[in-house]
Amino acid sequence: MAKLLFDDRELRELRRQCLHYNVFPLFLSHCMGGDPPAVYAVLKPIVDECVTQLAEMSFEEVRLIVDSVSAGYRQLLLPVERPLTREYLRRVAEYCVAVELQAGYSPVSEVISPLPNDSEVLTACPELRSRFDDDGLLALTDDLLLFDGGIRYRKHFLHYHQFLRRGFSSNPNFDFLGTLARFRHETQDSNSFRIAIDHRRIINFDDYRHEMELDTWFGPKFDPNKLDDPNFVGLTVVARTYSNSLDSYPLEKTEFLWKTNEVESIKTLEIEEL
Asked: Model pTM?
Protein backbone atom coordinates (compact mmCIF):
# COMPACT_ATOMS: atom_id res chain seq x y z
CA MET A 1 0.00 0.00 0.00
CA ALA A 2 1.30 3.48 -0.89
CA LYS A 3 2.57 5.36 2.12
CA LEU A 4 4.63 8.48 2.76
CA LEU A 5 7.67 8.13 5.01
CA PHE A 6 8.43 10.77 7.66
CA ASP A 7 11.37 11.51 9.92
CA ASP A 8 10.05 11.35 13.49
CA ARG A 9 12.59 13.87 14.77
CA GLU A 10 11.57 16.40 12.14
CA LEU A 11 7.88 15.90 12.99
CA ARG A 12 8.57 16.40 16.70
CA GLU A 13 10.39 19.66 15.99
CA LEU A 14 7.59 20.80 13.69
CA ARG A 15 5.05 20.07 16.40
CA ARG A 16 7.17 21.98 18.92
CA GLN A 17 7.34 25.07 16.73
CA CYS A 18 3.64 24.88 15.86
CA LEU A 19 2.77 24.83 19.55
CA HIS A 20 4.98 27.86 20.19
CA TYR A 21 3.34 29.85 17.40
CA ASN A 22 -0.18 28.49 17.91
CA VAL A 23 -0.34 27.01 14.40
CA PHE A 24 -3.00 24.33 14.10
CA PRO A 25 -2.50 21.38 11.72
CA LEU A 26 -5.44 22.46 9.55
CA PHE A 27 -3.71 25.77 8.79
CA LEU A 28 -0.23 24.37 8.37
CA SER A 29 -0.20 25.03 4.62
CA HIS A 30 -0.45 28.78 5.24
CA CYS A 31 3.02 28.68 6.79
CA MET A 32 4.46 27.75 3.38
CA GLY A 33 4.43 31.45 2.61
CA GLY A 34 7.27 31.86 5.10
CA ASP A 35 5.47 33.02 8.23
CA PRO A 36 6.16 32.31 11.00
CA PRO A 37 9.78 31.74 9.95
CA ALA A 38 10.51 29.22 12.73
CA VAL A 39 7.67 26.97 11.53
CA TYR A 40 8.49 27.46 7.85
CA ALA A 41 12.14 26.51 8.39
CA VAL A 42 11.10 23.09 9.71
CA LEU A 43 8.04 22.59 7.52
CA LYS A 44 9.49 23.28 4.06
CA PRO A 45 12.07 20.44 4.03
CA ILE A 46 9.40 17.97 5.21
CA VAL A 47 6.98 19.06 2.48
CA ASP A 48 9.73 19.01 -0.16
CA GLU A 49 10.62 15.43 0.78
CA CYS A 50 6.96 14.39 0.59
CA VAL A 51 6.61 15.97 -2.87
CA THR A 52 9.65 14.02 -4.02
CA GLN A 53 8.09 10.78 -2.78
CA LEU A 54 4.73 11.57 -4.39
CA ALA A 55 6.37 12.43 -7.73
CA GLU A 56 7.79 8.91 -7.86
CA MET A 57 4.38 7.30 -7.33
CA SER A 58 1.85 6.27 -9.94
CA PHE A 59 -1.52 7.97 -10.31
CA GLU A 60 -3.24 5.12 -8.46
CA GLU A 61 -0.74 5.29 -5.60
CA VAL A 62 -1.31 9.03 -5.19
CA ARG A 63 -5.07 8.43 -5.25
CA LEU A 64 -4.66 5.84 -2.47
CA ILE A 65 -2.65 8.37 -0.46
CA VAL A 66 -5.47 10.90 -0.82
CA ASP A 67 -8.09 8.28 0.07
CA SER A 68 -6.19 7.47 3.28
CA VAL A 69 -6.34 11.09 4.48
CA SER A 70 -9.06 11.85 7.05
CA ALA A 71 -12.29 13.24 5.60
CA GLY A 72 -11.77 16.78 6.91
CA TYR A 73 -8.55 17.12 4.94
CA ARG A 74 -9.52 14.89 2.01
CA GLN A 75 -12.27 17.26 0.91
CA LEU A 76 -9.56 19.84 0.22
CA LEU A 77 -7.76 17.43 -2.14
CA LEU A 78 -10.62 16.10 -4.24
CA PRO A 79 -11.00 15.37 -7.05
CA VAL A 80 -7.77 13.55 -7.94
CA GLU A 81 -7.35 14.25 -11.64
CA ARG A 82 -4.85 13.55 -14.38
CA PRO A 83 -2.31 14.88 -15.01
CA LEU A 84 -0.86 15.12 -11.49
CA THR A 85 0.70 18.58 -11.45
CA ARG A 86 3.55 19.62 -9.21
CA GLU A 87 1.24 22.17 -7.58
CA TYR A 88 -1.31 19.47 -6.75
CA LEU A 89 1.34 17.11 -5.36
CA ARG A 90 2.59 19.89 -3.11
CA ARG A 91 -0.93 20.44 -1.80
CA VAL A 92 -1.27 16.72 -1.11
CA ALA A 93 2.08 16.80 0.68
CA GLU A 94 1.06 19.75 2.85
CA TYR A 95 -2.13 18.08 4.03
CA CYS A 96 -0.44 14.72 4.57
CA VAL A 97 2.02 16.48 6.87
CA ALA A 98 -0.94 18.11 8.62
CA VAL A 99 -2.51 14.69 9.19
CA GLU A 100 0.72 13.38 10.74
CA LEU A 101 0.94 16.47 12.94
CA GLN A 102 -2.70 16.17 14.00
CA ALA A 103 -2.13 12.65 15.34
CA GLY A 104 -0.08 13.91 18.29
CA TYR A 105 -0.49 17.67 18.17
CA SER A 106 -1.48 18.55 21.74
CA PRO A 107 -2.43 15.56 23.94
CA VAL A 108 -4.06 16.34 27.28
CA SER A 109 -1.61 13.98 29.03
CA GLU A 110 1.16 16.53 28.47
CA VAL A 111 -0.52 19.36 30.35
CA ILE A 112 -1.93 17.77 33.51
CA SER A 113 1.25 18.21 35.57
CA PRO A 114 1.06 21.47 37.57
CA LEU A 115 4.77 22.23 37.06
CA PRO A 116 6.49 19.94 34.52
CA ASN A 117 10.24 19.35 34.68
CA ASP A 118 10.72 20.06 30.96
CA SER A 119 9.05 23.47 30.90
CA GLU A 120 10.01 25.58 27.89
CA VAL A 121 8.82 28.62 29.82
CA LEU A 122 11.09 28.01 32.80
CA THR A 123 14.02 27.19 30.53
CA ALA A 124 13.69 30.66 28.99
CA CYS A 125 12.58 32.42 32.20
CA PRO A 126 13.90 30.47 35.25
CA GLU A 127 13.14 33.42 37.53
CA LEU A 128 9.41 32.67 37.17
CA ARG A 129 9.68 29.34 39.01
CA SER A 130 9.11 30.94 42.42
CA ARG A 131 5.90 32.59 41.19
CA PHE A 132 3.99 29.33 40.71
CA ASP A 133 1.85 27.96 43.55
CA ASP A 134 1.29 24.29 44.43
CA ASP A 135 -1.51 24.08 41.84
CA GLY A 136 0.77 25.31 39.09
CA LEU A 137 -0.93 28.71 38.84
CA LEU A 138 1.21 31.69 37.92
CA ALA A 139 0.82 34.71 40.22
CA LEU A 140 0.17 37.76 38.07
CA THR A 141 2.40 40.64 39.07
CA ASP A 142 2.87 44.07 37.52
CA ASP A 143 5.38 42.77 34.95
CA LEU A 144 2.83 40.31 33.52
CA LEU A 145 0.30 41.87 31.14
CA LEU A 146 -2.80 39.89 30.16
CA PHE A 147 -4.08 39.77 26.60
CA ASP A 148 -7.06 37.72 25.45
CA GLY A 149 -4.62 35.41 23.61
CA GLY A 150 -1.82 35.15 26.18
CA ILE A 151 0.47 36.96 28.60
CA ARG A 152 3.30 39.39 27.95
CA TYR A 153 6.32 39.00 30.21
CA ARG A 154 9.19 41.33 29.38
CA LYS A 155 10.27 40.37 25.83
CA HIS A 156 8.34 37.09 25.93
CA PHE A 157 4.78 35.99 25.21
CA LEU A 158 3.34 33.12 27.27
CA HIS A 159 0.36 31.06 26.19
CA TYR A 160 -2.64 30.18 28.33
CA HIS A 161 -3.11 26.61 29.51
CA GLN A 162 -4.73 24.09 27.18
CA PHE A 163 -7.72 23.81 29.54
CA LEU A 164 -8.41 27.51 28.92
CA ARG A 165 -8.86 26.78 25.22
CA ARG A 166 -12.08 25.87 23.48
CA GLY A 167 -12.39 22.13 23.26
CA PHE A 168 -9.18 21.94 25.32
CA SER A 169 -7.12 22.30 22.13
CA SER A 170 -8.26 25.17 19.91
CA ASN A 171 -7.72 28.92 20.26
CA PRO A 172 -7.97 30.41 23.75
CA ASN A 173 -11.44 31.19 25.03
CA PHE A 174 -11.18 34.81 23.95
CA ASP A 175 -14.50 35.91 25.46
CA PHE A 176 -13.65 34.62 28.95
CA LEU A 177 -9.97 35.58 28.91
CA GLY A 178 -10.66 39.01 27.46
CA THR A 179 -13.16 39.65 30.26
CA LEU A 180 -10.66 38.40 32.83
CA ALA A 181 -7.91 40.65 31.40
CA ARG A 182 -10.15 43.71 31.63
CA PHE A 183 -11.31 42.83 35.15
CA ARG A 184 -7.73 42.36 36.29
CA HIS A 185 -6.71 45.70 34.76
CA GLU A 186 -9.57 47.47 36.54
CA THR A 187 -9.28 45.78 39.97
CA GLN A 188 -5.66 44.68 40.38
CA ASP A 189 -5.17 47.24 43.16
CA SER A 190 -7.71 45.38 45.31
CA ASN A 191 -7.53 41.78 43.97
CA SER A 192 -4.79 39.24 43.31
CA PHE A 193 -4.87 36.99 40.25
CA ARG A 194 -3.33 33.64 39.29
CA ILE A 195 -3.67 31.71 36.06
CA ALA A 196 -2.47 28.49 34.45
CA ILE A 197 -0.13 28.64 31.45
CA ASP A 198 1.07 26.16 28.84
CA HIS A 199 4.67 25.30 29.71
CA ARG A 200 5.33 23.98 26.19
CA ARG A 201 4.80 27.34 24.50
CA ILE A 202 6.75 30.60 24.59
CA ILE A 203 7.74 33.07 21.87
CA ASN A 204 9.23 36.54 21.59
CA PHE A 205 6.56 39.15 22.09
CA ASP A 206 7.50 40.77 18.77
CA ASP A 207 6.40 37.54 17.04
CA TYR A 208 2.95 37.57 18.65
CA ARG A 209 0.09 38.10 16.22
CA HIS A 210 -3.28 39.13 17.62
CA GLU A 211 -6.12 37.03 16.23
CA MET A 212 -9.61 38.25 15.45
CA GLU A 213 -12.59 36.09 14.61
CA LEU A 214 -15.02 37.76 12.24
CA ASP A 215 -17.98 36.75 10.16
CA THR A 216 -20.68 38.65 8.29
CA TRP A 217 -24.38 37.80 8.37
CA PHE A 218 -27.05 38.99 5.98
CA GLY A 219 -30.69 38.02 6.29
CA PRO A 220 -32.97 36.71 9.06
CA LYS A 221 -31.29 34.89 11.94
CA PHE A 222 -32.49 31.48 13.00
CA ASP A 223 -35.28 31.57 15.59
CA PRO A 224 -36.35 28.17 17.02
CA ASN A 225 -39.65 29.69 18.13
CA LYS A 226 -40.58 30.31 14.49
CA LEU A 227 -39.38 26.99 13.13
CA ASP A 228 -42.94 25.86 12.30
CA ASP A 229 -44.18 29.26 11.13
CA PRO A 230 -44.80 28.93 7.35
CA ASN A 231 -44.50 32.71 6.97
CA PHE A 232 -41.02 32.87 8.52
CA VAL A 233 -38.95 32.12 5.42
CA GLY A 234 -36.17 33.76 3.45
CA LEU A 235 -32.47 33.72 2.59
CA THR A 236 -29.58 34.13 5.04
CA VAL A 237 -26.02 34.54 3.73
CA VAL A 238 -22.87 34.04 5.77
CA ALA A 239 -19.99 35.53 3.76
CA ARG A 240 -16.22 35.58 4.19
CA THR A 241 -13.90 38.56 4.07
CA TYR A 242 -10.65 38.04 2.16
CA SER A 243 -7.90 37.53 2.87
CA ASN A 244 -8.06 35.24 5.87
CA SER A 245 -6.61 32.02 7.27
CA LEU A 246 -8.94 29.82 5.18
CA ASP A 247 -8.00 31.13 1.75
CA SER A 248 -6.68 27.76 0.59
CA TYR A 249 -10.25 26.46 0.82
CA PRO A 250 -12.16 28.37 -1.88
CA LEU A 251 -15.36 29.06 0.05
CA GLU A 252 -16.91 32.45 -0.68
CA LYS A 253 -20.16 32.19 1.26
CA THR A 254 -22.82 29.85 2.65
CA GLU A 255 -26.49 30.42 1.84
CA PHE A 256 -29.34 29.21 4.06
CA LEU A 257 -32.70 29.26 2.29
CA TRP A 258 -35.94 28.59 4.17
CA LYS A 259 -38.88 28.16 1.82
CA THR A 260 -42.37 26.65 1.78
CA ASN A 261 -43.42 23.83 -0.50
CA GLU A 262 -45.77 25.05 -3.21
CA VAL A 263 -48.00 21.97 -2.95
CA GLU A 264 -47.79 21.13 0.76
CA SER A 265 -47.51 23.36 3.81
CA ILE A 266 -44.02 22.07 4.56
CA LYS A 267 -41.00 24.26 5.22
CA THR A 268 -37.73 23.25 3.62
CA LEU A 269 -34.19 24.30 4.46
CA GLU A 270 -31.60 24.32 1.69
CA ILE A 271 -27.94 24.98 2.54
CA GLU A 272 -25.39 25.64 -0.17
CA GLU A 273 -21.69 26.47 0.01
CA LEU A 274 -20.40 28.60 -2.86
From this structure: 0.75
